[in-house]
């Protein structure tokens, strides 16, 4: 595949932190009850589709199918495994929340999520608007190659792209299915989400040129099947035909919990 710079410096909110603990690390059986309650609280039903539920989500642009197809990995695609080394620029947000009398507990929870590399979510207890939150939450992150490569096990069946088990990825992508007609992502836990566009990066001090991309946020649970998931998939288009694929998920499948993440770089 094409050569990579020694690291990528990401400053876009679209490319923010992802968990860096070893992917797909099963939790102990004693911990099953707490994650189940957590997933029930997060999902609140059999399925939650954020894209469909939020009227503020931007519509997909004309010609999105072609753009998505140009970013997706091919069967047998050679990918480079990346790791994220996050730092946190938090002072300005902290000062703003303190000035408006926002919740310190919400601020601490946000800092904790950032330290773990989890996707950062707006909390109205901060006392600022969601638009203002997005302006403040610009957390620089460095993506560095691990020196490891893999060949992706992906199969095209009709209008669907299926991810199989790829050696070296610890099963993080296994079971994901992407409908190329609707753009909907389906997870092995039984839930799905439609894509939202990722806008190009415009920060004047950016050190990586994100040209656009797509993002899927999946969250849901079923106490009947003992399945649940909270996950985020991103496909980011960079300069020079480079693509970043990032997937994080906290999963419960038939009562067994796991947590994992993967960051891949490849050329299309």
First-last Cα distance: 9 Å
Strand proportion: 25-35%
Shape: globular
The residue-averaged pLDDT reads 76
Strand elements, count: 14
Main β-sheet, in a few words? 9 strands, antiparallel
Total helices: the number is: 6
Radius of gyration: 18 Å
The share of residues in helices is: 10-25%
- What is the structural class? alpha+beta
Q: Low-confidence runs (pLDDT<50, min 5 residues)?
A: 1-7, 9-56
- The SSE string, one letter per element, is EHEHHEHHHEEEEEEEEEEE
Characterize the structure shown.
Strands 1, 2, 3, 4, 10, 11, 12, 13 and 14 form a 9-stranded antiparallel beta sheet that branches. By secondary structure, the chain is of the alpha+beta class. It is 19% helix and 34% strand. Residues 1-7 and 9-56 have low confidence and may be disordered. The protein is built from 6 helices and 14 strands. The chain has a domain at 30-79 and 147-267. The longest helix has 13 residues, at 104-116.
Task: Supply database-style keywords.
alpha+beta; nine-stranded antiparallel β-sheet; disordered N terminus
How are the SSEs placed, and which strands pair?
Elements: E1 8-10, H1 33-43, E2 48-49, H2 50-53, H3 64-71, E3 78-86, H4 91-99, H5 104-116, H6 130-136, E4 141-151, E5 154-157, E6 160-163, E7 177-179, E8 185-186, E9 192-193, E10 196-198, E11 210-222, E12 227-238, E13 242-253, E14 256-267
Antiparallel strand pairs: 1-4, 2-11, 3-4, 3-14, 5-6, 6-7, 7-8, 8-9, 10-11, 11-12, 12-13, 13-14
What is this structure, in a nutshell?
This protein has helices spanning 33-43, 50-53, 64-71, 91-99, 104-116, 130-136, and strands at residues 8-10, 48-49, 78-86, 141-151, 154-157, 160-163, 177-179, 185-186, 192-193, 196-198, 210-222, 227-238, 242-253, 256-267. By secondary structure, the protein is an alpha+beta fold.
